[in-house]
Amino acid sequence: MKSNTTSKMTNNCIIYCRVSSERQAKEGHGLDSQRQKCISYAAGKNYTVVKTIEDRAISGGDLYRPGLEQVYKFAGEFQGELILLSYDLCRIARGTMNYLKIVEKLQDLNVKLEFTTMNFDKSPEGKLMENLQAAQSQYFRDKNTQTVIHSMSARVNDGHYPFHAPIGYKNMTTKEKKWVEPDKEKAPIIREALIGYAQNRFPTVADVQRYLNERFNSPRRSYFLRAKQAQRIINNAEFYGWIHNYETMGH
Prior knowledge:
Elements: E1 12-18, H1 22-26, H2 31-44, E2 48-55, H3 66-77, E3 82-86, H4 89-92, H5 96-108, E4 111-115, H6 124-157, E5 169-173, E6 178-182, H7 187-198, H8 205-216, H9 227-235, H10 246-249
Parallel strand pairs: 1-2, 1-3, 3-4
Antiparallel strand pairs: 5-6
């Protein structure tokens, strides 16, 4: 825990902005919009903006983000107290538990959290409102996920493929339908890897990973597959002819 006796200055602030998709980065309350609102708020409070940090196209459900890690690192090295200023609470986190973990981490680093749209005092009522806002943010995230699952499930039942194609396939689209077709270059490589794993020619996930990286990397293409990605390929039921209806699976 960083000592809070180094400096009594509390007007230095970091601006933190986050969007969960490239589309959001350019539309609505995108990065530029969030940044400008934070700058205006800081000016009204006579805060000195010492750093601006962004997380672009990263979910608020992720606890570990490059931008957030930069915040922790900067705060840990900064001599004195800091304010972390963000547009609203859901820019910090889209889940109650993650939000509380982030707040605790910031408190350990002597960082006060503020938002341009709302703020909470340290009274029992203020803490209650903060927790309710975090819970509401998670509710909207969960509700949006449920809506997307319902929509995708309906599309699958109608014979469409609304997902991103797994490696070895490519997405095909017309105005009437979406489907996948084998990728002529990658599909034979994936097929050989799966057959080799089934026949024990590639007895481990590391062997599958090594084979795929050897085949995927050439003067014409460059692609590095990690061990977790190789494991997902092996476990992917779509390679065995199954397409999950996530709604009936309870996801």
